[in-house]
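We were asked to recover a plausible sequence for a given structure. The inputs and outputs are reproduced exactly as logged, with field labels preserved.

PROBLEM: sequence recovery
POSITIONS: 381
GIVEN STRUCTURE:
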């Protein structure tokens, strides 16, 4: 029986020590956004209509106040999510209400996101924010998954999502112990799929590479780990935490609760600094509105395409095509061109399904929601 899981991932149930706000990433600019009289806290997890938060007085549970509920009903993007900074009000009976959502610096939105100039976000009406205020995105892809080596196109997809969020992407080739001799070759291949992005091998079992991962979390930086189910995300989070804070597949294997071990997104403060968000494995990644993210992932191809003889070169059979020339001389893997074409088609298709005017209108929505919420908050008697 493996039911004696040492997991304390349902942090609400464990007695909790108070947190130093600064260690959670609180700073002056956030403080300036907090309306008077509210208690600052950071969301560690959301759970149907309520949030678990970390505050100077430890873990608290906070129900959503009326304004938050109204705003979220009008636009799901306004729903609090893991990583959010919020303002709480203490009610007479000792309960806490989540009254204010502070502006997000970065955010992952499922169903489409584009970054606005500063702190603002936009999403389509189906948008759901997966994580907010993240500095680093670890894209976790196992060196070996069943019998397949790292899936380069999955890395490219996750990278597009990562770039789009406004955070810094880093690729981690997890379970590096499983591939032996072939590791160097695999790392080179992964690097071609991730121009401009650091790539590191990690083995959470032996601890190899874990300190490099930690170095991205210096100070109070917040990271999120994205990847398929079984990529080793929870095992890595446990290795970083130095204790079992997340359940992993082995622990859960016997109790028949399905293949996905991690069901909640959870923000975990690490004893040695920094915070990390474990996420359930991502099955499908929508590329709606991801044009910019895709461009970043294929910056090497964009650069080559700029040197094609024809401005509208489709890199198919055209003479003077710099992309085809690079494939010809072996500097560009052909797979990259195929992947680029595919993701571009997909992004264009997704975009064509949405009404351009509607999307434009939605663009300013996040900002106005925040403003509106603040205004009504300050006018309260
Ligand atoms: N050999 C080896 N196995 C590992 C490593 N890291 C994780 N595993 C194993 O891979 C399996 C999946 O790991 P998890 O950490 O549960 O994967 P996950 O990405 O969190 O999965 P979900 O929670 O379902 O999204 C477990 O059986 C781990 O023990 C590693 O570095 N090397
Ligand atoms: Zn061309």
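RECOVERED SEQUENCE:
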């Amino acid at each position: 029986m493996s039911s004696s899981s040492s997991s304390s991932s349902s942090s609400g149930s464990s007695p909790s020590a108070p947190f130093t706000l600064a260690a959670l990433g609180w700073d002056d600019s956030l403080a300036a956004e907090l309306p008077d009289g509210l208690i600052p806290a950071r969301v560690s997890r959301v759970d149907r209509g309520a949030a678990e938060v970390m505050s100077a007085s430890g873990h608290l549970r906070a129900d959503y106040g009326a304004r938050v509920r109204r705003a979220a009903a009008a636009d799901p993007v306004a729903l609090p999510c893991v990583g959010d900074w919020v303002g709480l009000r203490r009610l007479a009976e000792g309960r806490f209400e989540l009254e204010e959502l502070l502006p997000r610096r970065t955010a992952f939105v499922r169903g489409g996101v584009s970054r606005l100039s500063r702190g603002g976000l936009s999403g389509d009406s189906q948008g759901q924010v997966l994580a907010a205020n993240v500095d680093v995105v670890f894209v976790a892809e196992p060196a070996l998954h069943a019998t397949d080596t790292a899936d380069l196109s999955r890395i490219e997809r996750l990278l597009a999502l990562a770039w789009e969020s406004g955070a810094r992407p880093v690729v981690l080739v997890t379970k590096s112990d499983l591939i032996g001799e072939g590791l160097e070759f695999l790392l080179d291949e992964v690097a071609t799929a991730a121009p401009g992005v650091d790539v590191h091998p990690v083995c959470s079992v032996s601890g190899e590479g874990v300190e490099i991962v930690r170095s991205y979390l210096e100070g109070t930086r917040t990271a999120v780990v994205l990847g398929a189910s079984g990529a080793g995300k929870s095992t890595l989070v446990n290795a970083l935490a130095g204790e079992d804070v997340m359940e992993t597949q082995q622990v859960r294997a016997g109790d028949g609760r399905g293949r996905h071990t991690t069901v909640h997104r959870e923000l975990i403060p690490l004893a040695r600094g920094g915070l990390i968000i474990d996420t359930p494995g991502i099955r499908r990644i929508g590329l709606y509105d991801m044009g910019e993210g895709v461009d970043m992932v294929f910056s090497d191809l964009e650069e080559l395409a700029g040197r094609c003889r024809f401005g509208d070169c489709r890199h198919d059979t055209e003479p003077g095509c710099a992309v085809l020339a690079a494939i010809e001389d072996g500097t560009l893997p052909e797979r990259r061109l195929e992947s680029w074409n595919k993701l571009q088609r997909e992004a264009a298709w997704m975009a064509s399904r949405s009404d351009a005017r509607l999307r434009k209108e939605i663009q300013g929505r996040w900002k106005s929601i925040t403003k509106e919420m603040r205004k009504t908050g300050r006018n309260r008697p």
